[in-house]
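Can't attach files on this board, so I'm pasting raw text. These are the components:
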Amino acid sequence: MNIIDNIKGASIKRSVDSGTEEQRRAVQAIIAEVKKAGDDALHRLTEKFDGVHLESLAVTRDEIEDAFSGLDPELITIIEEAACNIRDFHEKQKRPSWFETKADGTMLGQKMTPLDSVGVYVPGGTAAYPSSVLMNVLPAKVAGVERIVMVSPPGKDGKIPAGVLVAAEIAGVKEIYKVGGAQAVAALAYGTESIASVDKITGPGNIYVALAKREVFGDVDIDMIAGPSEIVILADGHQHADEIAADLLSQAEHDVLASAVLVTDSSELAEKVSREVEEQLSSLPREGIARRSIEEYGTIYVVDSMEEGVEVVNDLAPEHLEILTAHPFETMASIRHAGAIFLGRYSSEPVGDYFAGPNHVLPTNGTARFSSPLNVDEFMKKTSIISYSEAALKEHGDKIAKLARLEGLEAHARAVEIRFKGEK
Amino acid sequence: MNIIDNIKGASIKRSVDSGTEEQRRAVQAIIAEVKKAGDDALHRLTEKFDGVHLESLAVTRDEIEDAFSGLDPELITIIEEAACNIRDFHEKQKRPSWFETKADGTMLGQKMTPLDSVGVYVPGGTAAYPSSVLMNVLPAKVAGVERIVMVSPPGKDGKIPAGVLVAAEIAGVKEIYKVGGAQAVAALAYGTESIASVDKITGPGNIYVALAKREVFGDVDIDMIAGPSEIVILADGHQHADEIAADLLSQAEHDVLASAVLVTDSSELAEKVSREVEEQLSSLPREGIARRSIEEYGTIYVVDSMEEGVEVVNDLAPEHLEILTAHPFETMASIRHAGAIFLGRYSSEPVGDYFAGPNHVLPTNGTARFSSPLNVDEFMKKTSIISYSEAALKEHGDKIAKLARLEGLEAHARAVEIRFKGEK
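---
Top answer:
Structure tokens for the assembled complex are below.
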């Protein structure tokens, strides 16, 4: 790994693939086709891109049952336990509507309402992750979204992987369609004969899916467009180099664009971790991917003090942050920007990817400066409630009219005054 | 007004101005120029677009004091009272960080952190609204944002209107720059010698400002791109036609694209309101604008029952909704989609625009299906906290490793197992 001990502005920002003009036009054409031809277009595009002819897009009960029979029962139990943890954590994010009343009879409040419907995109192939199904579906479910639709491209065999279907069933998804790519996003945004449109689309996907989400944004809501994954580990000299190396590699194996960073005040630890990474790399099944990620985006920053280390972390604003110090909770208090923080030796990052409960959909590429993990709020909207009494409007009406006239909006002033027109 | 008594799918969606290719290129060129030449570019572009040469972009203490001397002291007191109400309401939206601990020593939580810095755009000319300053700045202030920067284009006299400066001072803004348009957005996103960059940009603006916000989105966060304003009034036959007409017109005077809609089960009320609108229109200073809005987007839907009326409202998903029924609170319970709801005769919509406390920045154009009023959450981000104990990782580590292997991510499994490698 690249060891840097003279830091001038740390950053893990990588250039985001925003697609070529050609890809954008292709996506626009697909969306137009789905808008025009509906299910026919979906079947045609699925044959073209997924190389499979489907009688029906909807996943049947039989397919769900086959998925359960096809999966190790122990794994099913583990997925259920993970779902339970994720549900519990997200329940705590849920907020009730509230109201306040004032002596003059005024009532103000905020009404919380779940979205009517949400579509979850699940990628196909090797990126078909059951954990991703749980993390995208359960916050919507906890929010109270009535209709949750899942879409995922079928394999050459016309099927969706068993793990994904099992996770969807456990999460409570009642509608699943075998369709992927920009055509799936278009169907979710505008509806077809068999897929009714939704209000929000979430979930990761390739560049075509990301571009399609950008195109339909505004007509429906979308979640963030996620970039490649990152981990930053902030460790003092007393930590275990082998464990740190393993955690860095767990991030690096995701993607050649993934970024694994160690920040430490110990050059001895820096050297040890660098050697450990090299040693562990060679026995990994995904060695090729992990090696390229480490070579390109793996960095060890050696800082003068842990205080400087905290500053570097805040500059990086990482998706995942592990804090390995004598007093990790105290260190945490100084961290302003991170998607998720893992405290202490036994909070290895994969604990959060799969099982602990908090969401693994996190802000990447420095956007933790202003973005949050996927959460229940994103599947609910707020409505402001204003109820003024006669006494309240009598007392404050003149002020409101004055403010309106200051802004040159006479009809606003008159709307208030007309309530009392006979009385003055 | 256009009275419709046979409703087939109500909608207030208007085509949103997403700018021409030429406008987009102009905005991209301006952003590139500001990135390259900084303050020099800002001065040059201000001379070009605002027709004024400025010695310094920053608003001085003297200018603030002049603004206070230039405004009616009673108005200053009213703005202070409005600010107080807005602050109070938004304080109730604020949420603390939280943690939970489990018997095995696991601790999970959510840390709330305000954004470091926010830029607020305030339009110039006749759209320079003090109320808009309060509504954009105060949620950020309540969230705890340390640095709030305001930008607004100078008039031909090189000044920002007194009302806007007074509102900014009352809201607690410490940095104000006289710069507008796409160049102001670029300065906020990327920084210049005199304006340090921010993490999020909010506030309304013309098409160039909107396009610039879209361009910089991702590098910084932005708020929603607001469309023209709307009001829907749901009223039964016992309500006051003159007051309803006045409220419809208060919306129509904003913009020729504004939409004012009445939904009622009484054709008698429909007729009365239509006549009242015509009568009141003729004496409005902004008659031209209001008349065009009413002619193009003003509609009265006559429904068979108030239940059907509620359905129509949910289809419209309005920015502002007034409920004028015998029991407005009961009616409200059935409303799923609205930005803000005004209950009863004394809650005329301008009450919310200026004074009551809830935000007047609301989702438009049907986006209340999935969006919320501007609120404190948008100026804070969440960070997930995960702390596993040795006992917890021992108990659950195997399950986590199994899930990782199901997804083909061996390094994830090993990161967990390496913690206990000597023990098995």
